[in-house]
Amino acid sequence: MKSRIVPAILVGVFSMGIGSAFGDSHGMSAMKLAEKKKCTACHTVTESDPMAVAPSFMSIAQRYSMEESDRLVQVVLTGGEGHWGNVEMPDMGVRKDVTPKEAEKLVQWILDMDE
User: Fold this and answer.
1) Which part of the chain is the Cytochrome c domain (predicted)?
2) Of 28, 30, 42, 29, the residue nearest 95 (C-alpha)
3) Which of 19, 49, 50, 80 is most solvent-facing, going by the fewest CB within 10 Å?
């Protein structure tokens, strides 16, 4: 009896560890951050919405490489225009404030979409 309980407990513990590791990686937590910071008010994940104001995260991932992540972090932090067509990304204050750490997390998550 004891030999059956221990493996079942270990499987449960490891499953919870894997689930929380996945949730804490770039996946859902980054998407929730994008929603919380209102990134999804203008950006979509894929090109599925033709009425989106800004490029999809997937389009951004396909256009930029990981070597350009520092530049993209600055775009997230400062806004501006000329990054993608003529639409201006609002400055902080107009949109939700994003910390440098949050911007890095969002950019990493977006660029990982192209892998």
Assistant:
1) 22-114
2) 42
3) 50
